[in-house]
Amino acid sequence: MCDSDNHARNNPSTAYLEATEQLIAQRVAAVQTANAGAQASLAEAYAGQDVLWKAASESADAHRELAAHIVQDLHAHPETAFEEHRSMGMLAGVVEQRGFPVRCGVYGVETAFEAEWRSPNFDASSHPTVAIMAEYDALPGIGHGCGHNVIAAAGVGGFLSAVEALRKNGGVEGRLLLQGTPAEEGHSGKEYMIRGGSLDSVDAAMMIHGFGYDIGSHAWVGRRSVNVSFRGVAAHASSQPFMGRNALDAASLAYQGIGLMRQQMPPSDRVHAIMGGGARPSVIPREASMLIYVRSLGNQTLMDLSQRVNEIVEGAALMAGVQVDVEWDEHPMTLPVRNNEALVERWTRTQTLRGRTALPAGTVPETLAASTDFGNVSHLVPGIHPMVKVSPSDVALHTEDFARWAATDAAVDAAVDSAAGLAQVAIDYLADMKMRAAANAEFAEQGAVSVADLLAKSAAD
Question: What GO annotations for molecular function exist for this entry (predicted)?
């Protein structure tokens, strides 16, 4: 086989990404024009917004060296889910050095932490609380290929900048929390924290994520996982194959069944599976296993797709004449992100001031979507999870290439710009009663949904 054939097979086509880039470019100019008009007068939102925003932005810029330290330190010392002891300690130390007591191991998660600031006359019954969240876990073997070091720097910087702006200007009553939320990669640390009470007194929550684009509101799909164990009967594959029941056959049938189902799946939904079984070709495998991820843009479609996968797995076991055990959600499922558009609108303004164009929902195709446990947060309180450009648009998350970009000056720029934006939106939620009412009304219309609620409804149906 000639080398050119091998080269073509090992280099996937970039045509889809290139077409997407052209489509986005056509929309950016219109978005920039609209944003410029919206920024004409910051004082329209409420008296003093421009003063507080300016103070928050200046504070974020003043913390650039700190942001760079966090970005580089976490990048150099990646820790995976639930093992982030050093990362948590470093971040907690940074916050404590600036005068904020930090509680570690909070809400039942050993590597989670929390710090807070309260206005002098804070009253929990009448004044709002905003949580700014920071992730800091890394990927096995890749390190910060999802840029959680940038998320942590932005979260810490946003909290410090908001507090400094509010202290300098006064008159705003409320509370700010910095919540360190570990174990997002492959897990759902925020859901464990939620079950421990992390959102019990929170009115709104926000964080950012690095990406190849600046996006104010982007699709994040919900995700469930299922472990499947097939159990058959071993036999000699040559002398007595009729005495066996092949567990690997069942896994293969399930894998093919999932592949055939994809024709009927919505374009944004995803199912991916891996499988294994057997030790020697001469022995019919008695055991085989699969790990399957199911993803969808909607809560109900996620549950519907899960049911289809469940039926395929059980049908495969029946066809192969083997037994099957199906274990859903070894770690709690993550829900699709529900971006609060009232908060997103403010985020878009903040990033315009930083020279960024935060693209609106739908500009980048929803098929370019991953999953995050912030979805669980966003279904219980108004929240935003905007994307901030760290890398070129053709660099994928969860790759070594993105990990390299997560340690660059562009990553530090993203952290600083995001810190300013998080601080400004958090301040607005505390200080701008009109905007807060709009955000709360939008959320109330959609209704709060917990993982427990969704599972109970699915079981009843």
Answer: hydrolase activity
